[in-house]
Amino acid sequence: MKKGAILGIIIIAVAIAMIISIYTDSSTYATFTDAQKTESEIHVVGELNKTKALYYKPTEDANYFAFYMLDNEGTECKVVFNGSKPQDFERSEQIVLTGKMVGGEFHASKILMKCPSKYNKDQVEVTESASTNV
Amino acid sequence: MDIHYQGESLLPGQLGQFFIVLSFGAALLSCISYFFATKYKEDASWHKIARIAFFINVVSVIGIGSCLFYIIYNHLFEYHYAWSHSSRTLPVHYIISSFWEGQEGSFWLWMFWQSILALVVIVRGKSWENPVMTSVMLCQTILASMLTGIEVFGERVGSSPFILLRQALEAPIFTNPNYLSMITDGNGLNPLLQNYWMVIHPPTLFLGFASMVVPFAYGIAGLWQRKYKEWLQPALPWSLFAVMVLGAGIIMGSFWAYEALNFGGFWAWDPVENASIIPWFTLIAAVHVMVAYKNSGHSYFTATFLVLISFVLVIYASFLTRSGVLGETSVHSFTDLGMYWQLVAFNITFFGIMVYFLVSRWKELPITKKDEETYSREFWLFIGALILVVACVQIIATTSIPVFNALFGTKVAPPVDAIAHYNKWQAAFAVLVLILSAIAQFLKYKKTTPKVFYFNLLVSFVVSIVVTGVLLYFTKVYTNFMYVLLSFGAVFALVANARILGDAFKGKWKLAGSSVAHIGFALLIIGALVAAATNKVVSLNAGGSIPIAGFEEREKPGENLFLYIDQPIEMGGYTITYVGDSIAMPNVYYKVNYERKDQKTGKVIERFQLTPNAQQNPKMGLIGTPSTRHYLTKDIYTIVTSAPKLDGPEEEGHDHEGHDPNEGYEEPAVQMVNIGDTLRYKNGFIVVKGINRNATLQNIPLTSGDLLFALQLEVHAVTGETFEADPKYLIKNGNSFDFAKDIEEQGLRLRFTKIVPNEGMELMIYQKPLPEKKWIVMKAIEFPYINFFWCGTIIMTIGFLLSIFRRNKELKGKIA
User: Fold this and answer.
1) What is the average pLDDT across B5-21?
2) pLDDT at A116 (0 to 100)
3) ipTM of the complex in this document
4) Checking phi first, is residue B701 left (phi over 0); if not, alpha (psi -120 to 50) or beta?
5) Where are the domains of chain B?
6) A7, A41, A61: best mutation site toward chain B, by most B Cβ within 10 Å?
7) pTM: predicted TM-score of the whole model, two decimal places
8) Mind listing the domains of chain A with CATH numbers?
9) Quick one: how many helices (H) and strands (E) in chain A?
10) From the list B181, B541, B777, which residue is nearest A130 (CB)?
11) Do the chains contact at A126 and B84, CB–CB below 8 Å?
């Protein structure tokens, strides 16, 4: 057999292994309802329920941060994160959580936020003091 | 609709816009002329036009940059770009980085580098100039179109940096002709980007990206002009240059992330990072097979294909990062500026050119039918390149999950633990690449005697085993089989290449470049492996927290440590104390003292202070910047993750009318007391000493029927201080009054308000809330041996530089 053929077979084998690996490692975007049904870690996309207070009291525990999130179906769930409150969390528009359900709480291992970026959400801020000369 | 706006200076924008259109037109003309100059070689006028158009393009690119800089530098906030990326408080060097914070600025940067590189091509290209510049100017034309912002058939093409604020946004204030006077400041630069690495990292990265067009253009020129073999030689130093600069740029980004961002690491396999490393991998592979082809005649197609695909992947990378397709999978990609399809077209154009030439010239390509010898360098170089390509495919496949979602309408999420997913594959590929980079150095081109080869290999192998053992012992990465393999691979590559380097010193200096670069790469891998595998959070908060409901069932200790000011805490062998902060607006520097004591004698053997800072940005909240203690063998990285808000001056509202005299105090505690009682308050206790029936009042004369009592109190603060107080109670003409006593130092107000016979005296204790003790929450990570990573990078860059010199000399024919 030619070396080229052997190489080809090896590469195809590796490629198949890679595809399987990506397939098994990849997860799905789910809702809290889906999360309730599974044991494994999943992604949940949603937004912060801004009407409810965030809970982060570093004086009591610097590694406990809890908040309420609405997933894309509007289901609300309490989310607990074992860490400090991510910077600028209040302003987040969209949150992607990685984690799993523990009882009635969603325990997030990773929080990714999309904040109102300067590129798309422009709001002109007008300062009062400067407008006196109108 | 006709509003005469006041105070706008429209000239720089109009001039800039003119330059954009001019640069687009000139680039297009130059591209077309170069095309015809290549086709009709006898007609020199095409060449002349092409060059003139090119120089007009260069001038207009510089013109665009100058106008944009003028606008940002002079804070002309009537322009959207200046308003959204800069502010008045920004120091000049950050004005430079605000220049390329936006997509438009970074496109400009790309264009600018491309025109500089094109100048070099013109000076040195000789007969290659016409065909090579055709591709380069095509790319330049497309880039210029990204900046035009002109509507064509109702579709906006590109996004201009010179768009006015009132054109970009819709807001009621723009009906006011004097709106500009209301906009006092811009949005400012994202605080994360206010770092000197952000001044230097993007230009380097874009120089790397831009320089990849040159090997591509040579490849296309070679196929187009049927100079199949000749193009590789001039393309080789260019490829080395691109690989060197892009590599340095990527690692600078990684250093920036490590030094300035709060990721807590140097590589996170974020899609944006992957996008830049993908073309680097393929071009590295290309460089290797180009050398193999040059020396053996093998791997022609692989070399050509890899050179061409590398630039296509650069464009794919800019599609990934700029089109918004990555969406929620990446923290730091740009959002869509409405150029999605334009970027797709950019991709398709260059991919199409590559496919067209490879297919149409397929039968003429000098591909050898002969198999390579097993004991030959070219064979193993080819294998190495193949492994790099497969590694690259893995990165592309996982990174492109959002692209597949967009293509097929699926909703697949990327791996939950992306870092583990990538590491699993890339570590294996790295082992193979490292081992090959050692083995191939002992092989000769064409044919090697197996005996000599195995002998050389065996010596290096044995030495490597010993060194690996030592390395494993010190770095403690023997816990994982993959780590052991990777360490061995890196050490093997290091030892083998060090031997070659030794030969280089004996006179075979030609080989120095590759061996130095490989040594650098091996060191880089060792550093990355050890730092990534053994870095540990030292600020573990195991059980140090106050137990409250819901906290107990936590599975792992937290990674953040809470520190009160001046209260030392033990952490990972150090005693750390938060001792205060200094404010240099807009940054607050938190001073954290580290002390390490000798465990037996208790003597302090080491003491240093880290000052992680945090910007209390009104728009973005608290933005932490780490502070790192660098040792030769490890780094201690410290970042503030939470801190109390600084009091703004406007928060104190003392002056409003009709306020309660007891404002500023908490709800009082009302108690009946008798002589001898002791009462608690927040900061100590109060003893009721007695009652004075003969008290006097300063301003109110007492008449015979009046009764005045003073309660004699002694206030003991926890600090040990004592204070005297005598609040008074007056009954005058049947009405009762009381005269409170304040103890400012303790934030206390004491009122004696009633006397109830047989029960005692009523005392009201008002307390101000205690001034909040200062605190911070911080996280500290220890990164062992990370210096290998940075050193490796520098050495690798030097290696590339040596190789560039060598290949350049070959080009000039000085050495064969």
Assistant:
1) 90
2) 52
3) 0.77
4) beta
5) 1-189, 226-414, 666-767
6) A61
7) 0.82
8) 28-121 (2.40.50.140)
9) 2, 6
10) B181
11) no
